[in-house]
Predict the structure of Probable manganese-dependent inorganic pyrophosphatase.
Amino acid sequence: MTKTLIFGHKSPDTDTICSALVYADLKNALGVDAKPARLGEVNAETQFALDHFGAEAPEYVERVDDEIDNVILVDHNEFQQSVDNISDVRITEVIDHHKVSNFETKEPLYFRAEPVGCTATILNKIFKENEVIVSKENAGLMLSAIISDSLLLKSPTCTAEDREAAHELAEIAGVDLETYGLEMLKAGADLSDQTALDLVTMDAKEFTMGDANVQIAQVNAVDTNQVYASQDSIEKEIEKLINDKNLDLFLFVVTDILENDSDVLAMGQAKDNVEKAFDVKLDDRNRALLKGVVSRKKQIVTNLSEQF
Amino acid sequence: MTKTLIFGHKSPDTDTICSALVYADLKNALGVDAKPARLGEVNAETQFALDHFGAEAPEYVERVDDEIDNVILVDHNEFQQSVDNISDVRITEVIDHHKVSNFETKEPLYFRAEPVGCTATILNKIFKENEVIVSKENAGLMLSAIISDSLLLKSPTCTAEDREAAHELAEIAGVDLETYGLEMLKAGADLSDQTALDLVTMDAKEFTMGDANVQIAQVNAVDTNQVYASQDSIEKEIEKLINDKNLDLFLFVVTDILENDSDVLAMGQAKDNVEKAFDVKLDDRNRALLKGVVSRKKQIVTNLSEQF
């Protein structure tokens, strides 16, 4: 039987982890020998969701082993966000909701990207298309992914389809959407145990914009000032990353989940592009408040890409 | 209302033209202001299909006008096969059945590629998903696309889904699959009116393989020797193309639709790769018979790509 490995992006978030788990379960129900994997540490928000619905985190992999025949990517398609040996493996499927970039295959594949707020929203449709019943656990995991990606349905990336799926899945999972959602987000926003290195790497993604290498890290917080209490240490970690990875820009985004704003820190030789992209001035500590900005994908990457 | 333009690849074939027409019709039924377009001349096979089902060829466009807000790509995704100003337009959808390569967007989109033999097979599913009735004309056009891409269901690219769709659509279109199919293929294989330049450009696609620029042109024929009666002129046209486009390899593929073989002519500094990829020797006129090879996508591009 063909072995298939299913995983999301590096610096995994709740959608990436839950979508890998749920899609592997669906594939198994359809008779495919698939197993989920993760490319990094499980964050506190995701761990809360896993614990709440009695699920275990998928196995960590550093690279795809030779015994694996096929891989399925969920929640990403850009190779620089994927496993290191992605260019050497056979990708048979992609289920994603991001822009398409730096992705290619030698053969035709099943590639399904939709402009919705969350991969799990697409997975919920695939369950229906295949007439497979959604279990309580899978409903809870997909719900958690949608809450996470949409900041409890408040992000501009959230579509009518995401909202509908969230309400439907909350019912199957047997939880109150608002209550569970805020609890989960707060679990993720508890950054008290995180080191500066954790903060700048826990949900970081790399992008190629024009000729520039850009890394954007995002954390959710209830109190952004508490995060920046350690700004000196954060800056040191970012400086190291800029040097190690030859980055033109590192943007550290601290999103206030109650106010729905982001307090960002921009470093690197291309930091002026942040000022231009969002029509703000960085203060003397290289920070700026981006009012109403909560979505890396829809508000930050799009605007920054145009600037480069 | 947002204007959307729908088109397939350059050197259009029957799937590209028919899918653009049919998908525009479906979009209109769904309330989207979409119109079909083509990026090149309609070939004899496609014209036969259009005439048979009373359809008109879509309008020719050289580039996407400023008044167009969105474009939808059918039957291709690689930018070098698309309209010249593809990098400047907003792509909102892709419906395709090819490998993904040299494609990128700034924003999330609806990207649907499936490893089936024909774009029209996917469109037939989209009609069902949206509960829109397939008209006799649209059924005929989608059927023609499937027959064309699958060489009457004989190509190795043809999947069970393509076969099922073809039989279903033949019934709606009111034609006998075998009879109509052979008539249509023969109309396309009548190359008597074509100049050497026509032959090498009528269904030519460019590919980037490793660092090499490769162009692969394919024609269907009932008698391959008749095509090669003008090999001298064909070679001259290919030489010009190699120089103009700085190609490393030009592969001219003449597919015998009755025998299901291909008689190929390889030119350019990388022509040795053809010998290695297919384990054949090019004769003193740079030709070789590839037994059982009829599919550019599944048999030729895949094998050649590995060689480069």
